[in-house]
Amino acid sequence: DGGYLVFIFTNQSGVARGFFSVDDVNVLHDWMRAELAAQGAHIDDIRYCPHHPDGTVDGYLEDHPWRKPGAGMILDLMQHWPVRREGSFVIGDRSTDLEAARAADRPGFLFMGGDLDRFVEQCLEIQAREA
Q1: DSSP structure class, residue 93
Q2: Are 32 and 89 in contact, with CB atoms under 8 Å apart?
Q3: 3-state DSSP call for residue 45?
Q4: How much is the pTM?
């Protein structure tokens, strides 16, 4: 509602390690979108990196540029969507998310649990003060 595009970007090395398939990842993402939509939320796009250099599944055995802590997924999303760099930020639950944000020259905020809605509000307030 605040005029922001909302993206998810996630490492999914379980594909490279043979724990689950790309189809499984897509089913999960479809389920997430449906669950969020039922609560009035919307995800504009999702990127994931199924690669890992220590995997076991051919075709995914590399340290791909999309793999966090690299910025590849963020930069790809920013190329494909009308993203305003100014005011854009990343919320993540791991240090690699913040490293990816820094690599994309965007601020990052570490969510440690609790009330995600309130956390997002605080991040938006910080971004508004810095604009």
Answers
A1: S
A2: no
A3: strand
A4: 0.92
Tokens at residue 37, please?
Answer: 């939509």
**Which distant-in-sequence residues (6+ apart) come within 8 Å of 4 by Cβ?**
88
Distance CA 15, CA 112 (A): 26
Name 77's Cβ contacts closer than 8 Å, sequence gap at least 6. 7, 9, 45, 47, 83
| DSSP at 5 | -
Q: Distance between CA atoms of 127 and 122, rounded to whole angstroms?
A: 9
Residue 63 DSSP class: -
Mean pLDDT over 88-115 rounds to 97
Residue from 31, 51, 50, 34 nearest 42 by CA: 34
Q: Is 127 helix (H, G, I), strand (E, B) or coil?
A: helix
Q: Which residues contact 1 (CB under 8 A, 6 or more apart)?
A: none
Kindly report, residue by residue over 3-15, the tens digit of the pLDDT. 899 999 999 999 9
DSSP alpha helices (H): ranges in the chain? 22-38, 72-80, 95-103, 116-130
User: Contact 45/29 with Cβ under 8 angstroms?
Assistant: no
